[in-house]
Amino acid sequence: MDSRISARALASSLGGWRTREPAYEALADGIRLLCLDNRLAPRTTLPAERELAASLQLSRSTVAAAYRSLRESGHIASLRGSGSVTLALARHDPGRAAAAEGTIDLQQASPPAWPGLAGVMSEVAAGAAALVARAGYDVLGRRQLREAIARHYESRGVPTTAGEVLVTTGAQSAIHLLASVLLGRGDRVLVETPTYPHAVDALRRAGARLIGVPVNTDDGWDLDRAEQAFDRTLPAMAYLMPDFQNPTGRTMTARERGTFLRAGERAGSVLVLDETTAELDIDRPHPVPAGFAEGDPGTVVRIGSLGKTVWGGLRVGWIRADADVIRRLVAARPAHDLGTPEFEQAVAAALLENFPRIAGQRSELLRSGRDALVGALAESLPEWRVPRVHGGVSLWVELDAALSSALVMDVRARGVLLSAGPRFSVDGGHDRHIRVPFTAPPEDLVRAVSLLAESWRSVRAGAPVSIIEQFESVI
Length: 475
Ligand SMILES: Cc1ncc(COP(=O)(O)O)c(C=O)c1O
Hints:
475 residues; alpha/beta; Arc Repressor Mutant, subunit A; Aspartate Aminotransferase, domain 1; Aspartate Aminotransferase, domain 2; 3 domains; eight-stranded mixed β-sheet; three-stranded antiparallel β-sheet; 18 helices; 17 strands; disordered C terminus; binds pyridoxal-5'-phosphate
């Protein structure tokens, strides 16, 4: 099905697009980036030139020139009578052209597989005859795995029974299932901004209206805004990442947790805690005690995954919730999928028995990536503000000008793929930030930073003076 985007929605997604001269090329670049990020899906009809011009307070000829540039670069096609439509990823994507020469892909913050995984898979495969004797369709998940997950929660200080656990195909599937079962069209959902973009996609698809609560690397969560948002809008749900929040890397303090818990209870909201990154601790010893352990299981739902701790390709995640909520999820799941593959579940159960060793090795890997990245940034880009993070997968770096999107486009042509700050935004903005994952090998990170530094010099030199001055007057 084709879709269309209104001029207002496009203007809001574009955020601070005016990052270079001429304006029409900056606008075209902004739309290209939305296509590359899949925020504008292929076959989306763009607004008419006149409407977009009015929304962006531009002349129609500037928008016409931007659309012409997009046609020439193969990003859109304009057909008489049906307007301008985005095309599938353009042949001219500079990132793709560079792929042959060793692109560094930092768009996904996913560490490589834990080195022991292949061995565990081989051991489980040796018992394959018993596995295939099972029925195979099981929307709740293997009992053996649910028990292992329950024990894992116990070790983190959250008493749990196997009946409070449902196994999913990764955390993403958990978010999607929860959104489809717990939300109705038009329900409000409180989300952090910046946040994990695919959660936003799933919540929006379920018809949710999102309310952003700011979180930043220096001060953490904006508790005043959070309390106001709970009290005034009574959200049905709050989707939060309390530990090593993706992308900021912040972890909630006890005060922040307490505020969310109380405000959520007052508003009757379900708190969905995505703990996909919670156990990626670099500087503290394992096991990592769970936050919100005092929470009422009726209002707190947890999501977990082995995607970052072991391997994204395993596709095993879970939901921990009150047994009544689990029953509702089980009833709704068949429309979504018919269970998680048996083999991967058996592998996951074996992995959880060995979790402390896995987590320790993960810490070492992430530490070497983080330290290499922090060191390279300090040396080559001292004008950027790099937060201190103690875990997670990425740094949320503050640039010294609001040129994140322009930087991402430029460095892409040099063979480094990154996501710009606005990708993580709920309500526009974050043009001054970029997420740099430290999950890649240290040597790639060092090379990526040197390319970023080259790119930054060129992007800054081409930026309108107003953007550079705007920032200087802020600091
Ligand atoms: C916060 C967060 N939640 C969920 C996911 C998706 O995890 P999975 O691979 O288990 O579906 C990710 C992956 O990047 C993530 O960062």
